[in-house]
Design goal:
This protein is α/β, with parallel strands linked by helices. The chain folds into two domains: 174 residues, Rossmann fold; 177 residues, Rossmann fold (3-Layer(aba) Sandwich). It is built from 15 helices and 13 strands. It has a seven-stranded parallel sheet with strand order 3-2-1-4-5-6-7, with helices on both faces. A six-stranded parallel sheet has the order 10-9-8-11-12-13, with helices on both faces. Strand 2, helix 2 and strand 3 form a beta-alpha-beta unit. Helix 1 crosses helix 15 and helix 6 packs across helix 10.
């Protein structure tokens, strides 16, 4: 089988979780990833132990007409590459998880009459998945109400796959304290802007350093991302702030965190829900169809999160974090709400649907 997509951790890590679930059931399963050359999946997928081939594909640049001049040629080239891969591998099924590579490989799979499964992570489907969904065999979604984007009888509510190591987090708190060189008894805030970092969250941390440092009983883990490495990497921020470009042991970061301040990407939200951590979400305004705001509202409507607009983050976020972490009742209510919407078995449910589309696996 082929799993296609990537571009960000929000697409890559769910894809890896699906592949790992497949391998846990059928060790001899032959899984090939198809990604986009130059994107982070070309590094992360091999690190997870899977094969990957890259397409020469790029997406539409919404803010630059000139950068789109060569797009038609790249699309045609990627379709030819996708056709060649499919004819060579002859997969029994193709899974699309979103990202640049999903479009060409799923389109050609439909043309070759190969069954396809789409894993839609967001509460607001993007243009590509809405088009591909018309011919997909099955669409696994993470939110209610996706009938406005896809045919109702194709939809299965599964949730988004997360890393298996997010289980038993309370037992890992002291291990996490040692790993991050923090105090396991102190209240801890985790600030994450995704694997690349988030400019707004980074600037919020810098602008509020005096407020953060004036509360020494609260410690902070701050992932400023690869894009923030040069700007923030070599600066001392005080004993109660642990800054880093990338958190390798995300499970330990969640284990020690009492409150999470983060973007509202689909993977991040799913991880926070499974980890059962009270959170403040700051949707990115720089994403297609403003889907992060839709993601966040799906949680805030159920009392499972607090949302702050990007423009208000610098002024409000840190103060709201400090208020929340000091309000045991509010944190408990939010945790209970999260339990009702979290779907820790998402990868297993998706693979169940995937196997139903392969006659000899059903």
């Amino acid at each position: 089988m082929i799993i296609s997509g990537g571009g960000t951790g929000g697409h890559i890590f769910p894809a890896i979780a699906i592949a790992q679930e497949i391998k846990s059931r059928v060790q001899e399963a032959d899984i090939l990833f198809v990604g986009a050359n130059g994107k982070m999946e070309m590094e992360k997928v091999p690190q997870a132990g899977f094969k990957i081939i890259g397409l020469d594909v790029a997406g539409l640049q919404r803010k630059s007409f000139l950068k789109n001049m060569g797009l038609p040629f790249k699309v045609i080239k990627s379709l030819i590459q996708a056709y060649s891969i499919l004819k060579s591998v002859q997969p029994e099924i193709v899974v699309g998880v979103g990202g640049y590579a999903s479009g060409p490989i799923l389109y050609m799979a439909h043309w070759l009459k190969i069954p396809t499964l789409i894993q839609e992570q967001n509460s607001y489907a993007g243009i590509t998945n809405k088009i591909l969904g018309k011919r997909a065999s099955k669409i696994c979604v993470a939110y209610q109400g996706m009938e406005k984007f896809f045919e109702k009888d194709k939809i299965v509510l599964t949730g988004n796959p997360v890393r298996k190591d997010l289980s038993d987090l309370p037992l890992k708190r002291m291990e996490a304290a040692q790993y991050f060189q923090l105090d396991g008894d102190k209240k801890t805030v985790l600030v994450m802007g995704g694997s690349l970092g988030a400019k707004t969250l980074n600037e919020t941390m810098i602008s509020n350093l005096s407020l953060i440092q004036s509360n020494p009983d609260i410690q902070w883990i701050w992932q400023y991302g690869k894009q923030g490495q040069l700007k923030y990497g070599d600066t001392p921020y005080g004993k109660n702030i642990k800054g880093m470009a990338f958190i390798e042991r995300t499970d330990l970061a969640y284990a020690i965190a009492d409150v999470v301040l983060c973007r509202a990407g689909a993977l991040t939200i799913s991880e926070v829900l499974v980890a059962n951590k009270p959170c403040i979400l700051v949707p990115s305004p720089n994403v297609a169809e403003d889907h992060q705001t839709h993601n966040a509202r799906a949680l805030t409507d159920q009392g499972a999160a607090i949302m702050i607009q990007d423009d208000d983050c610098n002024v409000k976020a840190i103060r709201m974090v400090l208020e929340l972490i000091d309000d045991a009742t509010a944190m408990e209510l939010m945790s209970k709400a999260q339990t009702s919407v979290a779907r820790p078995q998402a990868a297993a449910l998706i693979v169940d649907e995937l196997f139903k589309l392969i006659p000899k696996a059903a």
